[in-house]
Design brief:
Structural class of chain A: alpha+beta
Strand content of chain B: under 5%
Order of helices and strands of chain B: HHHHHHEEH
Distance between the termini of chain A: 51 Å
CATH superfamily of the largest domain in chain A: Nucleic acid-binding proteins
CATH architecture of the largest domain in chain A: Beta Barrel
Subcellular location (chain B): Cell inner membrane; Membrane
Number of helices of chain B: 7
Shape of chain A: elongated
CATH class of the largest domain in chain A: Mainly Beta
Family (chain B): Belongs to the CcmC/CycZ/HelC family.
Structural class of chain B: mainly alpha
Protein name (chain B): Heme exporter protein C
Strand order of the largest sheet of chain B: 1-2
Organism (chain B): Allopontixanthobacter confluentis
Strand content of chain A: 25-35%
Membrane topology (chain B): Multi-pass membrane protein
Distance between the termini of chain B: 37 Å
Order of helices and strands of chain A: HHEEEEEEH
Number of helices of chain A: 3
Number of strands of chain B: 2
Largest sheet of chain B: 2 strands, antiparallel
Oligomer: heterodimer
Amino acid sequence: MITGLKPKHQRLILVLIALIALIGAGLLAASALRNQASYFYVPTQMAEKPPAPGQAVRLGGMVQEGSLQTLADGVTTTFVVGDGEATVPVRFAGILPDLFVEGSGVVAEGRLDAGGTFVADNLLAKHDENYVPRELQEMTEHQKNQVVAETEIGA
Amino acid sequence: MHGFANPKRFLNIARWLTTLLLVSGLVLAGGALAWGFFMVPPDRLMGDTVRILFLHVPAAWLGMGGWSAIAMSSLVFLVWRHPLAALAARGAAVPGMIFTAICLVTGSIWGRPTWGTWWVWDGRLTSMLVLLFLYVGYIALAQAVSRDGGSSRIPAIFGLVGAINIPIINRSVVWWNSLHQPASITMGKSAIDSTFLIPLLIAVAGFSLLFGGIVLARMRTLLADIQTEARLRRKAMG
């Protein structure tokens, strides 16, 4: 095959070529899956390409501060999910998960109704990557930011 | 490197290194788990559920690390044809599978109170489940090859091909919207408060040592098996 090379070097080159081809194929497949493999839509995607009303989809984003309201029947809540650019109003009847608070992440399973409101059958609380002990909660906002900043720089 | 590849020299080193790794790993991992389970304060949102972190994160790290070890040993075996590399890959498979299973189970237990569900088919969880199946397939293949006398290159190729899943697991939370949170610890940065981070890092180090000890012990067992077989064969012939 390639002259002047020891067999083990030939094998090394062959295996490396095979690996590069494999990784290339894997990356191509993963990027082709980009939209299908996403677990939920963010509000921007939902605003750009709204799914057909009644089609089961998931919506993920942050619960906007001050948007959480409980309707008169006591079990239906409404809130707004946003991603910094677009927002989608959501209606949900049922028990809210423990970690569900304004300003935290949520994934809602349900469908858009004709009026553009997302009707959720199920809510999942999304935890972010921050882990902070409970004592920090009693701190003022300024102290909290300071501690978080230290944690992020200091590792 | 070739010096360590001599089976006799390997056994001489592995004999005391196995004990050292197992004992230091058990002490560190046990200590870090006790620290994490009983001494750290509850998390601001998750409360006591955060304690699962100290088992879940090392298990995830070693589940992926185990397959990386299989892939690298397989590469060494395919290129340099050294039999010890094939044994190292087989030795890493069983502990890797067990840690992957621990990761999936603890993650599920954590997910129920935190997310509100035991399981979702998002990118991270699905690719981790695929890793578990890859381990099961690899172990079955390696055993079949060693029992029926096929070429050890077959599981080595499988180990290399399966490695494509490792960067997918790692990037799954970046490429795709997933319910699983993105990485908390990245190069030089951590979103985990030091109260949690220090016992977590000790747990990761301890479990890694333990993992190394288990791999060495498994390799010694496999070597002893091969020697016994060869001796029996000589006896039967003579």
